[in-house]
Write a structure and sequence with these properties.
The structure holds 2 protein chains of 2 kinds. By secondary structure, chain A is α/β, with parallel strands linked by helices. Helix content of chain A is about 45%, strand content about 15%. In chain A, helix 2 runs antiparallel to helix 3 and helix 10 packs parallel to helix 12. The radius of gyration of chain A is 39 Å and the shape is rod-shaped. The chains are: A alpha/beta, B mainly alpha.
């Protein structure tokens, strides 16, 4: 080799060596961030079959509902970790690619050897800069995830709070019609499979919607977003069938009836249901308001579930004077009969509980009726014929005529009243804030016209002065009614309407025709 | 009876995170280049 050749080779090497340094530095400085973006794209967008499985993936806790974790409650961080792992893996491949090219060029000792020599110096520099920029990219992704997760948490908590606040403002407190427990929020069955979701509200399993982990169906998380359209269940498992009355959409009014066996509770309940129906149908003939004002077809009442419909659908037939009402089976815990009442723009759910009279004789039974501690208005039903003092004053002819309809089990109303009051006070019911409607049944059989108001008549004729005084002392408001739960040619007896109006007005339901 | 088509529930949030992260990365690199 002559001197000239060596000179040119040296010149060539000196020229391309810095180029190798520069090229390697630039390629690795820019390459590593690009590799990270490629990893980001593969993990977050493409998710092809070649994507390696993440080393860690958060699972829904075993005690949680069967729903997919909300993305920002674990999976987003797992994705960020996955991106870093994939980026590290791809960077390793990228590094090995360069190292192999350099090694082979050096071994070949060809014209690229000076470039490779330069790249040997430029590559570590590029790796350092590239790694720093790629790390910055990873930090950007982590910060994005963290900020988004925080925003989601705040949104979820806010939405939950807003939903609770709306329920509170509307004074909606849900009660299971079967187990009588206060339902904070109903459980919902997935529309796509039989899985039950106990707490569907915004949280780690979904903010606006959640996805069933069993079938993938999405469902809204709040009553505000339409979750009431799904099948609701008692979260305590108090009822196997769905709560068809769409709890949470309207304020609930709990209306318990109590009284002795055969007092006329069931018949009264049937007559209230019939009164709702007549109001709803706009039949003005028999539902005069106070002072002759009439109800209006603005009222719309319907049976809120199938159970109520089955029980009350034939109320009109059962209220015929010729039909005697079958006694409520003792030992069977009452299920609420629910009526959805729309008056103007407001809707209410009226849950009426009619327990057999046997439940009001001993503490063990009465204490099972835990719907009493959710009520603000109570209805005591008294059959005047069951009052011994009154019965004895009837003429023999009257006794003979009324004997068939008189309850076989005679127990003084005082005893029932005082027993129930003690029991509901034991349930921590603030009785002094509650209202009591005292209903004397069978007004169609007992002629008490022209004998003063009901309260006076009760004291004078029935000798229930003690009961009247106790009721006045115990309750915030007591009202006395005479009712005849019968339907005749002109329709439902007009004694029912004032009772129902009083019940509703005290629970914030103002019907057309009500006086303020 | 056909089962409902399973959609990836994370598709949208993943895409959003991708877009935001990419936008921030490009923005930061642009600022870095300007600064240099």
């Amino acid at each position: 080799m002559d001197f000239l050749a060596v000179f040119f080779i040296a010149i060539y090497a000196l020229c391309v060596f810095p180029l190798g340094v520069l090229a390697a530095a630039v390629v690795y400085s820019c390459g590593l961030p690009i590799v990270y973006v490629v990893a980001l794209t593969r993990v977050l967008v493409k998710r092809g079959s070649s994507l390696p499985a993440p080393s860690h993936w958060p699972e829904t806790p075993s005690d949680a509902d069967p729903a997919v974790l909300q993305y920002f409650y674990g999976p987003a961080l797992a994705d960020a970790r996955h991106t870093v792992q994939l980026g590290w893996q791809l960077s390793g491949q990228f590094f090995r690619l360069g190292r192999t090219a350099i090694t082979e060029s050096m071994k070949a000792a060809g014209p690229t050897a000076p470039i490779a020599a330069g790249a040997m110096i430029g590559m570590p520099v590029g790796l350092l800069v590239g790694a720093a920029v790629a790390t910055a990219c990873a930090v950007v992704q982590l910060v994005t995830v963290a900020v988004s997760a925080a925003a989601m948490w705040v949104s979820g908590t806010t939405l939950r709070g807003v939903d609770s606040a709306v329920l509170r403002i509307k004074n909606i407190r849900m009660v299971c019609p079967t187990c009588y427990r206060r339902v904070t929020y109903p459980a919902y069955k997935c529309p796509g499979c039989p899985k039950l979701h106990q707490d569907i509200r915004p949280g780690r399993l979904g903010i606006l919607r959640r996805y069933c982990s069993n079938c993938g169906t999405s469902m809204p998380t709040l009553l505000l977003f339409g979750s009431s359209r799904m099948k609701a269940y008692c979260p305590y498992g108090g009822i196997e069938e769905p709560m068809e009355h769409r709890p949470g959409k309207a304020r609930e009014i709990i209306l318990p009836f109590f009284g002795e066996v055969g007092a006329g509770k069931t018949r009264l309940l049937l007559s209230l249901a019939q009164q709702f129906r007549e109001w709803s149908e706009g039949d003005h003939a028999n539902h005069d308001g106070p002072e002759g004002q009439q109800a209006s077809p603005e009222i719309n009442a319907e049976f809120a579930d199938n159970s109520t419909s089955r029980a009350l659908n034939n109320a009109a037939r059962l209220l015929s004077p010729k039909v005697s009402t079958a006694p409520t089976p003792p030992g069977q815990m009452p299920r609420a009969h629910i009526i959805r009442l729309k008056s103007g723009h407001r809707a209410h759910l009226i849950q009426m509980f009619d327990a057999a009279g046997e439940y009001f004789r001993d503490s063990a039974h009465t204490q099972q009726l835990r719907y009493f501690d959710k009520a603000h208005t109570f209805i005591l039903v008294i059959d005047p014929l069951s009052v011994e003092a009154f019965w004895e004053r009837l003429l023999p002819d009257q006794q003979a005529e009324l004997q068939p309809v008189r309850s076989e089990t005679i127990r003084e109303p005082d005893l029932t009243y005082h027993h129930v009051i003690e029991e509901i006070q034991d349930m921590q019911v603030p009785v002094h804030k509650a209202r009591l409607g005292v209903v004397l049944s069978r007004a169609d059989l007992i002629n008490s016209d022209g004998q003063g108001d009901v309260e006076t008549w009760m004291q004078a004729e029935l000798g229930l002065g003690n009961l009247v005084r106790s009721a006045r002392l115990n309750f915030r408001e007591v009202r006395f009614f005479r009712t005849a739960a019968i339907i005749e040619k002109k329709g439902l007896d007009e004694s029912i309407s004032p009772l129902l109006r009083w019940v509703l007005s005290g629970n914030g339901v103002n019907l057309p025709g009500d006086t303020a | 009876m056909t089962s409902p088509k399973r959609r990836d529930p994370y598709r949208v949030p993943r895409f959003l995170i991708f877009v935001v992260t990419l936008a921030l990365i490009i923005g930061l690199l642009f600022l870095l280049v300007l600064w240099l």
